[in-house]
Write a structure and sequence with these properties.
3-stranded mixed beta sheet; two-stranded antiparallel sheet
């Protein structure tokens, strides 16, 4: 993609200035983008740090009022910048930063996860790693100060999240944690003895910081935390609009989720009948799990299978259905250094020297994996899912300024990834009944969590008429709708309960993508390749912004 085909505009320059300010306020972006400088530093997680970032957003919005649009690209940039920064400020004013605690995507995890993107090959790499270890306790102190501000304001996350994240912190503080292994890794890398000693000292500080977090969560947050998991309609509406990128009717979405779940169950039961005639979904799953030919043994076998499957998808779809630039054809599949559960994607650096990566965080004790169940996940995280979507945004320097290239919206991104799963089924990649059952298992799970998430956090009636949703109801409900092991179900449900509005954005986003595709093809014809090209060239924007642009 030729970066000289469009002259940067005044609005592009404003956005590039904003990226530079973000790099100052959130140094972790240097690592995420692969930009040199400040790679070992953390953002200020204290109340003062959050206020500083909020004021910076206000300044950008004030500047935006004095800049005119030069072309259609600017029109999209303006709409998305106003939506994104306005939503950030609304959540800041509502105190989201005071209650930012959940099992998957809060500073409690982020302070450690940034290490996953940092190279540790050379002496200089290890010097940056040592610096980050040294900086972690200070960043943790800022985070604890923000949680304490929430305690003082009576704005506290649910007690379940306090206990679950305290347990995660205990692990990171332990003698066999990720941090504890870093010093041994430094020795194996052959770095100087003085640097190894510095890493060891930094490891001790990081473990102590997580031990302190665990104590604060148990002794200060948990005693005043609400026992109910629900965040309520007001906070939920703010979160949902942010995750999806457009306001949706929450009650209509809940009713749709109930119907969509019933449709997924019916479709999955029909496929199960082709695997075990007359049998249930559980019978079909048991039959497949007993087939040694479909099982993967050990995490290395899982990683190798992920890589081979991904490589095949990139090669074949790059010939037939999508234009995939050469730098994007490299996608690394890795086992994450944690054992918390979950599968996630990290985009490439701006120059593609660090490729896009698919990470699998395998829960402790899980050693067996079913290829039929996980095939659709590789397409979700890789191609044509997140890697295609985010990689194209990184590559599209011709149209997208730096802020547009690094932006992310969950409804757009996760909705596209679910859309991509269905697309692969339509293209014939999931024709085998077992593989289709696995895809439907994932789609059924995403529909179930629309119902669960909205039901619990808004206190809605349960579909079976047995009363109003509570957090405790969620575990049994989810277990009915996924064929996953107990640790996975427990982690996933705790995630939904602590990260209100995020999980439904997948299925809601898919719904909006499919509506948009149908409306676009009615207006422009049935050229899906062209629809996908135009839609993905915009980058990750809110679904409202995308719809306004394409239609």
């Amino acid at each position: 993609m030729d970066a000289t085909t469009r002259t940067p505009t005044a609005l592009d320059r404003l956005c590039e200035d904003w990226v530079e300010e973000m790099l100052t306020l959130e140094p972790e972006l240097h690592v995420e983008l692969g930009r040199p400088g400040r790679e070992g530093e953390y953002a200020d997680q204290s109340p003062e740090g959050h206020d500083a970032r909020a004021e910076a957003r206000r300044r950008v919005l004030r500047r935006l009022e004095h800049v005119e649009d030069a072309d259609e690209v600017d029109v999209v940039t303006r709409a998305e910048l106003k939506r994104s920064l306005g939503g950030d400020l609304a959540r800041h004013e509502a105190g989201f930063w005071q209650r930012d605690l959940n099992v998957i995507a809060s500073p409690a995890q982020g302070l450690r996860e940034i290490f996953d993107l940092m190279p540790r090959d050379s002496q200089s790499d290890w010097e940056v790693t040592a610096l980050r270890l040294e900086q972690l306790p200070r960043a943790m102190d800022g985070y604890v100060a923000s949680l304490r501000a929430g305690v003082a304001a009576g704005n506290v996350p649910a007690v379940r999240q306090a206990h679950e994240v305290a347990a995660q912190a205990d692990k990171l503080a332990g003698s066999s944690s990720f941090f504890a292994s870093l010093a041994d890794d430094a020795v194996r890398a052959g770095v100087a003895d003085t640097l190894v000693a510095r890493v060891r000292q930094g490891v001790d500080g990081a473990r102590t910081a997580y031990d302190h977090l665990a104590a604060v969560l148990r002794d200060e947050v948990a005693p005043v935390a609400p026992t109910a998991d629900a965040v309520g309609r007001e906070l939920y509406a703010l979160a949902s609009a942010s995750f999806v990128g457009v306001e949706v009717d929450l009650d209509e979405t809940y009713a749709w989720g109930v119907d969509e779940l019933a449709r997924m169950v019916e479709e999955q039961e029909a496929i199960a009948d082709t695997i075990v005639p007359g049998g249930s979904v559980a019978d079909a799953v048991a039959h497949l799990e007993s087939d040694p030919a479909s099982r993967l043994h050990g995490t290395e076998a899982l990683r190798e299978w992920m890589q081979a499957t991904s490589d095949q998808a990139v090669a074949e779809l790059g010939r037939t259905h999508f234009d995939i630039p050469e730098p994007m054809r490299r996608l690394e599949c890795l086992i994450a250094p944690t054992q918390e559960g979950g599968i996630y994607y990290t985009p490439p650096s701006e120059d593609f020297t660090r490729p896009g990566r698919m990470w699998w965080s395998v829960p402790e004790g899980v050693t067996e994996f079913d290829a039929w169940r996980e095939l659709t996940t590789v397409y979700h995280e890789g191609v044509p899912g997140h890697h295609l979507q985010l990689g194209l945004a990184v590559a599209n320097r011709a149209e997208l300024n730096g802020w547009r290239r690094l932006s992310w919206n969950s409804g757009h991104g996760e909705g596209w990834a679910l859309y991509a799963e269905r697309l692969m089924a339509d293209l014939g990649y999931l024709d085998a009944p077992a593989d289709r059952l696995g895809m439907l298992d994932g789609q059924r799970m995403r529909a179930a969590r629309v119902v669960l998430d909205l039901g619990v956090h808004l206190g809605l009636p349960k579909p079976d008429g047995s009363g109003t949703w509570t957090g405790d109801d969620a575990f049994g409900f989810m277990a009915q709708h996924v064929s996953m092991n107990a640790p996975f179900v427990r982690f996933e449900v705790n995630r939904y309960l602590g990260w209100a509005g995020q999980a439904p954005s997948y299925k809601v986003g898919q719904r909006l993508w499919e509506r948009l595709r149908d409306d676009w093809t009615r207006a422009h014809g049935d050229d899906l390749r062209e629809f996908h090209r135009r839609a993905l060239s915009v980058g990750s924007v809110g679904m409202g912004t995308l719809r306004d642009h394409l239609l």
